[in-house]
Amino acid sequence: MSSNQTSQSHRRFDPLFGDWVIFAPTRETRPNDYDRKNLSKLSPDACPFCIGQEFKTPPSLWVGKASDSTLSSEQRETSEQVLCHEKWRVRVFRNRYPAIAIEKNHAPEHNQLQIFSNAVISGGHEVIVDTRSHTDRMCETSITESRLLLRAIRDRIAWWHRQKDIKYVSVFKNCGASAGASLHHSHCQLIATNHFPKQTQTLFNRSRSFTNKTGYCLLCKQIDSELADRSRIIYQGKRLTAYCPYASRFPMQVRIAPRNHHAQFEESTSDTLDEVAMLIRRSVLALQQIHPFIAYNLIFSNLPPKRKKQERSFHWSIDLCPRPSSIAGFEIATGNMINCVLPEKAAELYESQFNLQRID
Q1: Most buried pick, 90, 220, 233, 316, via CB within 10 A?
Q2: What class does CATH assign to 212-263+281-296+305-354?
């Protein structure tokens, strides 16, 4: 590859593990609040995500507002800029330091039998600022902002699913330095790519194989089994279930999923989104009561675009993955996670906090 090509986002194939690694050299220059010794001294005037600082980010692609009890939103062209007087509550814009950038020249993939194989990776990387408040703690944000956040995620997933060549859309939130966050102000991220990740392909294959053998969706069957056992259930509502999975990969992990089979998050109704917002909020607030200031990731799992034929075997879900410590040598060497908190104990702790909560 030329020096110009290696300075751009691309992927390289690892023949030993049979997987691709994404390289994003421009990410190295992004700002990092967590390098500073005292986050409390950070001024909102220096934060590009705060009200009044919109000029420090690319133009907004999506803007969410609220007046009284009414929520409103609009998709935008990238040439437009959102201003502070618009009273936005949630906004979406392109990441200034993207892991994956828009790339129109699609070079062919190299033969994977070669030792040094590489390929162009294209798509997009967006930031979803989910509050006007300069905080990374959900207890300092509003339920209205949480509801708008879910609408932003739904709309941007739907937009990317309509784009040519996009094979996967990942939505996630990193909160805290050990969870991968670089900026203190609460936000989520969306990465859309022409690359279908190996781990996602494994999940997809296992789900499809289970459906072909049994006629059931694998996650539907897991939810039914958890509801029958009840020892790991922390919430059961009209539309959603929340539980600590039997084989949780992370301590205090929570999975949120529709009670009935739904493959595509972007087809969720407003009522479902409001319940999702409430449940994420309750789970994170409970976690912060049990472990104050703990880092965590929120991971959205959704049916990839152009996979309509497989929607019978796939079921969307959201995982709250607390990060009390960094992944260590054994996990890196083997791919096996070590969890020091039984999910039954975790569910008991969450349930006790749910009973004490006020979330308005």
Answers
A1: 90
A2: alpha beta
